[in-house]
Write a structure and sequence with these properties.
This protein is of the alpha+beta class. About 25% of the residues lie in helices and about 25% in strands.
Protein backbone atom coordinates (compact mmCIF):
# COMPACT_ATOMS: atom_id res chain seq x y z
CA UNK A 1 0.00 0.00 0.00
CA UNK A 2 1.25 3.39 -0.95
CA UNK A 3 0.90 6.27 1.44
CA UNK A 4 -0.57 9.50 0.21
CA UNK A 5 0.60 12.85 1.42
CA UNK A 6 -2.68 14.62 1.98
CA UNK A 7 -3.98 15.06 -1.58
CA UNK A 8 -5.59 12.51 -3.73
CA UNK A 9 -3.77 11.36 -6.79
CA UNK A 10 -4.39 13.59 -9.82
CA UNK A 11 -5.53 16.57 -7.78
CA UNK A 12 -3.37 19.66 -7.80
CA UNK A 13 -3.67 23.09 -6.35
CA UNK A 14 -4.32 24.68 -9.73
CA UNK A 15 -6.05 27.69 -8.20
CA UNK A 16 -2.80 28.82 -6.56
CA UNK A 17 -1.02 28.79 -9.92
CA UNK A 18 -3.97 30.59 -11.56
CA UNK A 19 -3.95 33.32 -8.90
CA UNK A 20 -0.20 33.83 -9.24
CA UNK A 21 -0.55 34.17 -13.02
CA UNK A 22 -3.65 36.37 -12.79
CA UNK A 23 -2.17 39.12 -10.57
CA UNK A 24 0.45 40.38 -13.06
CA UNK A 25 -2.16 40.24 -15.83
CA UNK A 26 -4.55 42.43 -13.81
CA UNK A 27 -1.77 44.89 -12.97
CA UNK A 28 -0.85 45.15 -16.66
CA UNK A 29 -4.50 45.65 -17.65
CA UNK A 30 -4.88 48.43 -15.04
CA UNK A 31 -1.73 50.14 -16.32
CA UNK A 32 -2.97 49.98 -19.92
CA UNK A 33 -6.36 51.40 -18.84
CA UNK A 34 -4.70 54.32 -17.02
CA UNK A 35 -2.56 55.13 -20.07
CA UNK A 36 -5.64 55.00 -22.34
CA UNK A 37 -7.59 57.38 -20.06
CA UNK A 38 -4.65 59.80 -19.92
CA UNK A 39 -4.23 59.78 -23.72
CA UNK A 40 -7.95 60.22 -24.41
CA UNK A 41 -8.57 62.95 -21.82
CA UNK A 42 -8.30 66.59 -22.83
CA UNK A 43 -6.28 67.53 -19.74
CA UNK A 44 -2.64 68.25 -20.35
CA UNK A 45 -0.79 67.22 -17.22
CA UNK A 46 2.32 69.07 -18.30
CA UNK A 47 0.63 72.34 -19.29
CA UNK A 48 2.28 75.20 -17.47
CA UNK A 49 1.20 78.27 -19.40
CA UNK A 50 -1.62 80.66 -18.61
CA UNK A 51 -5.20 79.80 -19.55
CA UNK A 52 -7.80 82.38 -20.56
CA UNK A 53 -10.63 82.86 -18.07
CA UNK A 54 -13.60 85.25 -17.86
CA UNK A 55 -12.42 88.65 -16.61
CA UNK A 56 -15.39 88.94 -14.25
CA UNK A 57 -14.17 85.80 -12.45
CA UNK A 58 -10.67 87.26 -12.10
CA UNK A 59 -11.96 90.44 -10.51
CA UNK A 60 -14.38 88.57 -8.25
CA UNK A 61 -11.57 86.25 -7.11
CA UNK A 62 -9.70 89.38 -6.02
CA UNK A 63 -12.74 90.85 -4.26
CA UNK A 64 -13.44 93.51 -6.89
CA UNK A 65 -15.91 94.59 -9.55
CA UNK A 66 -15.06 96.22 -12.86
CA UNK A 67 -15.32 99.99 -12.28
CA UNK A 68 -17.85 102.08 -14.17
CA UNK A 69 -16.45 103.32 -17.47
CA UNK A 70 -13.71 100.67 -17.56
CA UNK A 71 -12.83 98.54 -20.60
CA UNK A 72 -10.93 95.26 -20.47
CA UNK A 73 -7.59 95.10 -22.32
CA UNK A 74 -6.64 91.70 -23.74
CA UNK A 75 -7.42 88.34 -22.17
CA UNK A 76 -7.63 87.66 -18.48
CA UNK A 77 -5.54 84.70 -17.40
CA UNK A 78 -5.30 81.98 -14.80
CA UNK A 79 -2.10 80.16 -14.04
CA UNK A 80 -1.05 77.72 -11.39
CA UNK A 81 -1.38 74.25 -10.04
CA UNK A 82 -1.64 74.33 -6.26
CA UNK A 83 -1.47 78.09 -5.90
CA UNK A 84 -3.67 80.10 -8.26
CA UNK A 85 -2.58 83.29 -9.98
CA UNK A 86 -5.09 85.44 -11.88
CA UNK A 87 -4.31 88.55 -13.90
CA UNK A 88 -6.34 91.18 -15.75
CA UNK A 89 -5.75 94.54 -17.40
CA UNK A 90 -8.28 97.29 -17.98
CA UNK A 91 -8.48 100.97 -18.78
CA UNK A 92 -10.58 103.32 -16.71
CA UNK A 93 -11.02 107.06 -16.20
CA UNK A 94 -7.94 108.41 -14.43
CA UNK A 95 -10.01 110.58 -12.09
CA UNK A 96 -11.83 107.51 -10.69
CA UNK A 97 -8.82 105.32 -9.86
CA UNK A 98 -8.17 106.34 -6.26
CA UNK A 99 -11.86 106.33 -5.36
CA UNK A 100 -12.29 102.84 -6.88
CA UNK A 101 -9.30 101.54 -4.91
CA UNK A 102 -10.58 103.08 -1.66
CA UNK A 103 -14.09 101.65 -2.11
CA UNK A 104 -12.90 98.22 -3.25
CA UNK A 105 -10.18 97.75 -0.61
CA UNK A 106 -11.13 99.96 2.36
CA UNK A 107 -8.84 98.13 4.81
CA UNK A 108 -5.78 98.06 2.54
CA UNK A 109 -2.89 100.45 3.06
CA UNK A 110 -3.01 103.67 1.09
CA UNK A 111 -1.84 103.37 -2.52
CA UNK A 112 1.87 104.08 -2.97
CA UNK A 113 3.59 106.15 -5.61
CA UNK A 114 7.13 104.89 -4.95
CA UNK A 115 8.55 101.41 -4.80
CA UNK A 116 5.85 99.74 -6.85
CA UNK A 117 8.26 97.26 -8.35
CA UNK A 118 6.91 97.93 -11.82
CA UNK A 119 8.93 100.59 -13.59
CA UNK A 120 5.97 102.18 -15.40
CA UNK A 121 3.57 102.22 -12.45
CA UNK A 122 2.45 105.60 -11.17
CA UNK A 123 0.41 104.13 -8.33
CA UNK A 124 0.22 100.70 -6.69
CA UNK A 125 -1.64 98.89 -3.95
CA UNK A 126 -1.20 95.54 -2.25
CA UNK A 127 -4.14 94.15 -0.28
CA UNK A 128 -3.99 90.99 1.78
CA UNK A 129 -7.06 88.82 2.37
CA UNK A 130 -9.56 90.90 0.40
CA UNK A 131 -13.13 89.97 1.16
CA UNK A 132 -15.10 92.57 -0.76
CA UNK A 133 -16.95 90.10 -2.96
CA UNK A 134 -18.73 86.82 -2.10
CA UNK A 135 -16.57 84.96 -4.67
CA UNK A 136 -13.30 86.37 -3.29
CA UNK A 137 -10.73 83.64 -2.82
CA UNK A 138 -7.44 85.45 -3.19
CA UNK A 139 -5.08 85.93 -0.30
CA UNK A 140 -3.13 88.74 -1.96
CA UNK A 141 -4.23 91.32 -4.55
CA UNK A 142 -1.82 93.63 -6.34
CA UNK A 143 -2.99 96.60 -8.38
CA UNK A 144 -0.62 98.79 -10.36
CA UNK A 145 -1.80 101.87 -12.23
CA UNK A 146 -0.10 103.60 -15.13
CA UNK A 147 -1.44 107.00 -16.11
CA UNK A 148 -1.45 106.94 -19.91
CA UNK A 149 -2.71 110.48 -20.45
CA UNK A 150 -4.72 113.14 -18.63
CA UNK A 151 -7.95 111.14 -18.87
CA UNK A 152 -7.00 107.44 -18.95
CA UNK A 153 -5.32 104.98 -16.60
CA UNK A 154 -4.16 101.44 -17.41
CA UNK A 155 -4.79 99.17 -14.42
CA UNK A 156 -2.92 95.87 -14.00
CA UNK A 157 -4.79 93.66 -11.54
CA UNK A 158 -3.47 90.40 -10.12
CA UNK A 159 -4.88 88.15 -7.43
CA UNK A 160 -3.34 84.97 -6.08
CA UNK A 161 -3.30 82.43 -3.31
CA UNK A 162 -0.23 81.60 -1.26
Amino acid sequence: MAMTQGTARGRTRWWIVAAILLLPGLALAGFVAMIAIWVLSDDDLFESGPKPVPCVDVLHFGGAELPDGAEMVGECEEQGFQDLYYSARFRMPRADVEEWLALTYPFAPLPETDGCGVHDADLCLTAEDPAGHPDAGAQVVRVSVEYEDAATALVRFSAHTL
